[in-house]
Amino acid sequence: MIDSAVYDFAPNNQPSQVIGMGGFNSIFERGEGEGKVRVGDAGIMIDSTHWRKGYAKEAVAAMFDWAFHLSMEEVDPKIDVVFFESLAANNRIRGLLSGCFGFKAVLRLADVGEEQVWEIGKSEWEKRRGEIGLI
After folding, report:
1. Given CB 3.0 to 4.6 Å as the disulfide criterion, which of 17, 37, 87, 134 pairs with 80?
2. Is residue 90 scored above 90 in pLDDT?
3. How do residues 34-48 score in pLDDT, each as one tens digit?
4. Has residue 3 got a pLDDT over 60?
């Protein structure tokens, strides 16, 4: 069974130029019995010279499609929930996940300070995907 998946990103017009990376740092099970879910701990980094060009939005959308087996990939990672976390001061990821996609973050206190956390299930992604015109 798949337990992680990380990919490099490159623009279509320059496939040899890596501009970032992202994917699932780990895929794990949480809970027990009928409450058990597979969680994909996701992350993304884009070189700052390529910010605000839509690459992160495209990459995160592809990550959700892969996680929930909506892409043409034959591999089904069987992920129930995609999980993102970052420091609360990270306005870029908040702008992407809350601004572009409309997901709600939960703030929590961690050892490193305040963090923002998103947990997105398949039905929520399918709804948002349609609303932002990615179908």
Report:
1. 37
2. yes
3. 889 999 999 999 999
4. no
Domain boundaries, the chain: 5-131
DSSP state of 1: -
Q: What is the 3-state secondary structure (H, E, C) of 51-103?
A: CCCCHHHHHHHHHHHHHCCCCCCCCCCCCCEEEEEEECCCHHHHHHHHHHCCC
User: How far apart are the C-alpha atoms of 64 and 23, rounded to whole Å?
Assistant: 10
Superfamily the domain 5-131 falls into = Gcn5-related N-acetyltransferase (GNAT) (3.40.630.30)
Partnered with residue 93 across adjacent β-strands are none
Q: Which two tokens stand for residue 97?
A: 């996940």
Buried-exposed string 41-80: b where 16+ CB fall within 10 A, e elsewhere: bbbbebeeeeeeeebbbebbbbbbbbbbebeeeeeebebb
CB 94 within 8 A of CB 116: yes
